[in-house]
Each structure stands twice: as C-alpha cells, then as structure tokens.
Amino acid sequence: MSSLARRRATDYTVKVISVAFAALALLLLAWILWTLVVRGLPAIGPHVFTRMTLPPGAGGGLLNAIVGSLIQIGIALAIGTPIGLMCGTFLAEHGKNTQIGNAVRFVNDVLLSAPSILIGLFVYQLLVMPFGGFSGWAGAAALAVIIIPVVVRTTEDMLNLVPIGLREAAFALGAPQWKVVTLITWRAARAGIVTGVLLAIARAAGETAPLLFTSLGNNGWSLDMNAPMASLPIAIYQYAASPFEDWVALAWAGALLITVGVLTLNILSRLVLAKMK
Amino acid sequence: MDATLTGNQAASAMAAARKPTGRLSDPLFVGVLWTSGIFVLILLGLIIAMLFEGGLPALQEFGISFLWSTTWNPVTEKFGAGVMVFGTIFSAVIAVVIALPLSFGIAFFLTEIAPGPLRRPIGVAIQLLAAIPSIIYGMWGFFVIVPLMAAYVQPPLIELLGPLPVIGALFQGPPLGAGMLTAGLIMAIMILPFITAMFVEVLESVPPMIKESAYGVGATTYEVYRNVSVPYGRTAMVGAVMLGLGRALGETMAVTFVIGNATRMSASLFAPGSTIASTIANEFPEAGPGSLKLQSLLELGFILFVISFIVLALSRLLVRSKLKG
C-alpha cells in the first residue's frame, strides 16, 4: 500500500471511529432517558402529586418531597441570586484586570466544580451542629452555596457581552454608576442573567449530596423551616435503595420528574443564550 | 478594550465631575458589589476552615498516618483514610481513561466532520448528559448497568484476562457488577460532556490560517487535527482533562450506588470499593454528633477538598493561560 493510500485509510478510520463515539454518546443519553420513561412513566399518577410519602404498600406519593424541594430551592434562590448577581457585576465592572478580581474569579471557578457533598458537610458544621439539628434552612443554605457560583459565572459572562459604548454613553450623560449598572447594563443583559438563574435552579434541583446532612429528609408533611424537611432527591435516594417495589417505582417516578424538569430548564436557557449571541 | 474606558475607569472619571445624584448612592452601590465579591472569597475560606476544624480531632487521635492507614473499623473506632483515598483516585482515573479517547473523538467529530447544521444540536445533546443529576446516573447505573456488567462484561473478562501475569491482577474476583470499573464507567459518561465542551472550545480557537497551511501542503483532516490543532491547544486540553478528573474525584451519589461500598483495598477493577465521597454519604447517618467517626468523616472531607482543590486549581491555570494568551 502506498503511503498516500495508508494516510487516507487512517484518516477514514479515525473519522469512522469519531462518528461512532459521537453516536455512542447520543445513544447513552437516549438510553438513560428511555430507562427513565419506561420505568418512571407507569409509576406516575395523580397520587404522586396528591399524597405524602407513606410506608411501603400504603400507596403513598411524593407531595411533601416535591413541596419541600420547591421551598428549599425558592429560599436558596432568594439568598443566592442577589449575592451571585452582585458578585458577577463586581467581576465585570470592577474586577477586570485587578488582583482581587482575579482572586474572586478563581475562587468562584473552584466553588463551581467543588464536590457538592463537601458543601453539605460545611453547612452541617456551620448551621446544623451549632443550632441543634437538621433544618430546612440548612438545606436552603447548602443549595444557595451551589447556586451562587453558577449565577456569578453567567452574570459576568453576560455583562461582558454588553458593549462598552453603552456604558460610556450613560456615563457621558452624567448618570451615577449605580444607575448605569442597574438601568443600562443589567437591562441589556437581562435575558442572559435570567438564563444563569434558570441554570442554577436546574443544578440545585438535582443536588442530593448537599441535602443529606442539612435538611436530612422528612417522611411527614412539614413546612417548618426549623425542622428536617423532605426533598425530591433525598426521597429518590431513600426509595431507590429500598427493597420495596412500590417505593422503587416511586423513586423512578421522581427521577423522571426531576430529569424532565432539569432538561427542560437547560434547553430553555440554551435557546435564550443562542438568541443573544 | 485598551482604547476605551472600562466601567472602572469611567466611574473614576465620573467621580471628578459628579452630579449630586450619585453622591451617596454610588459609594453604597460599589460597597455592595465589593462586599459580594469578598463574600465569595470568605465562603471558600470558611469551607476550608470548617472542614479542617471539624476533622482536626481525628487527625490528632490517629496522627498523620490517618492519611494512609487502611483500617476503617467502626467497632474498634480505628479509622484511616487509605482505602478511600485509593478508591477515590483509582475510580476517577478509570473515568478519565475511558472518557479521554471518547472526548477526543467527539471533539474531532464536532469540529471537523459534522455538517454545519448538525453541529449545534448534537453538541447540545451531548451537553445534556452533564445536566442529568448525579442521582439519576446512580439509579441508572444500579438498575441497568450493574446487572449488565455482572452478566455479560465481567465473566468473560475474568476468564480471558484474569490468568495473565501482572495485568491479571486487575481482573480478579467474583463478577459482582458493582465495583471500581462500573463506578469509573458511569463517571466517564458524566465527565465526558465537560471535557468535550472544553476541547471543542479550544479547537475552535485554533487560527484557521495555520490549519489551512497544513491542508495546503496536503495533510488529511486527521493529520491536521493531530499535528496542528491538538498541539496548538495542548495546554488547555490538559486543563480540560484535569477538570474532568476534579469532577470525578468529588462525585458522590452516582458512585455510592454502583461502587459496592466495601472498605477493603483491592487492585482489581471488579472489586467493590469506596471513595471518600461515597464513604461520607454512606456512613454519616451512623455517626453521632461529636463522635470520633464523625470527626474522621470530616477529616476525610478535608482531604477530598485538598485533593480536588489542587486538581481544579491546576486545571484552571492551564485552561486560562491558553485561552487568554
């Protein structure tokens, strides 16, 4: 075989392998989703949304877990979004080439990929141990720590897309900085910032490890933020590992719900992003 | 950027001739921005301090040998991190070894082969793998992959490769399904999108000129990829792999479901083991407040934090150096 023919053959082989790898990745995604649909869909019914978690065989649902998750994510957002928004703005407006800006950006990137179970341990040490027990507050705080770096990152990226001339024009008119940022820069980047918040919700909704040692989970109905609080991921974790068939089925139902929610949020935010760029 | 004012400079220019409207509110606003920035720094500091403080009693009790001691015995209250540190690194390395060639191939596909209109949808679909929560991977791994491994993958491998010298040690033990290899496999799927996305970003930043000059002298697509694009982005690509490694090191829920949770050390890919994260998740419920076990788990957490901090910091340095420079 001539050298050219051999090089062509190598090129062709690598291309075929690459296509196969990409197909494999798509196949894996389809396989996971298929498994969720096949096992989760039959288990979904009105009882999932209307009933509490009950002992095996009693026909329980996931109502308290869903509500608990919503409450904790809601409070985590209320804490995390303003901090993340402000910190992202700090990086974009004041931290461009400064040492402190670089340090904050570095730390934020580490937090973004830090093992989430350690955030759970951290909040356990900070809020659970000293204040006498597992609580919804602690769970919300742990989720807030997950949310903040996501919001910081997208806010900074989105503010950097806002043309500098827009800011200069506003400054030239004599606007103070707070007005320039809140009325001009934020408004121009609004869609992107909202995307960051959506991504943060998606991330927080599926997190299990940080809740294990903070809000712990609760098999009863409780809206008390000072008591242990149920959440969907924890309920799935408990039920999936149980030997009872109806509990495992409920775990699949919950898994399907979470995945559909998380993927919808992700696709939505990508559509918004694609429109912006 | 150099020719124009940054927000920062414009603000200080404004300060010279400031109208009354911002006299009080502006310093306040800037103060809030700075406080939030510093808050993130303090947050990381607090995490490190809390984990260190929580685990300190265990370190004092068992000494520095806690780091490598392979004893983990809740009954006699003798604890050491050796097995978990080994399991954490072993399973994460398996994940990277599996994910790396896949990422190379998929990045090649997305940047060079896929027709234009297909690139984005396929790229997004692969990114969705990263959005699926870790616990879902755990369930899928536990109910779907573990039985497959036990029935179809492990028995032939044990039979075929087990008797071989040296590498045979990797293929010992009963085909349980759950174990190091399964954990690494699941994590490989989870970190694949992260590595691929950064590979694609780096490869797309290669100047078309140098690629075209290689094409001009007759190189094939693969040769350009291998000899021009990849060497050009090598530093950042190593950083991307480190990010994948860092993610795998701290992965908890997926691993807890499929690694088998044994506190024994074995060189076999099929042996059940445990990672730092899975041990913390599993044993925490049995550790009472103030107990030596809890302190040991916190110390494990501190070790994991140090390991992943080093890997993530290194990854970031490598990635940023290339993309910025």
From TrEMBL, chain A:
InterPro entries: MetI-like (IPR000515), MetI-like_sf (IPR035906), Phosphate_PstA (IPR005672), Phosphate_transprt_permease (IPR051408). It is a multi-pass membrane protein. It is found in: Cell inner membrane; Cell membrane. The chain crosses the membrane at residues 12-34, 62-85, 106-128, 134-152, 188-206, 247-268. Its main location: membrane. The lineage of its organism: Bacteria, Pseudomonadati, Pseudomonadota, Alphaproteobacteria, Hyphomicrobiales. Residues 62-269 form the ABC transmembrane type-1 domain. Keywords: Cell membrane, Membrane, Phosphate transport, Transmembrane, Transmembrane helix, Transport. Belongs to the binding-protein-dependent transport system permease family. CysTW subfamily. SUPFAM superfamilies: MetI-like (SSF161098). This is Phosphate transport system permease protein PstA. It comes from the Bacteria.
TrEMBL record, chain B:
The chain crosses the membrane at residues 28-52, 79-110, 122-146, 178-200, 300-319. It is a multi-pass membrane protein. Pfam families: BPD_transp_1. It comes from the Bacteria. Coiled coil: none annotated. Residues 85-315 form the ABC transmembrane type-1 domain. Its main location: membrane. It is found in: Cell inner membrane; Cell membrane. Keywords: Cell inner membrane, Cell membrane, Membrane, Phosphate transport, Transmembrane, Transmembrane helix, Transport. InterPro entries: MetI-like (IPR000515), MetI-like_sf (IPR035906), Phosphate_PstC (IPR011864), Phosphate_Transport_Permease (IPR051124). Part of the binding-protein-dependent transport system for phosphate; probably responsible for the translocation of the substrate across the membrane. Belongs to the binding-protein-dependent transport system permease family. CysTW subfamily. This is Phosphate transport system permease protein. It comes from Ancylobacter amanitiformis.
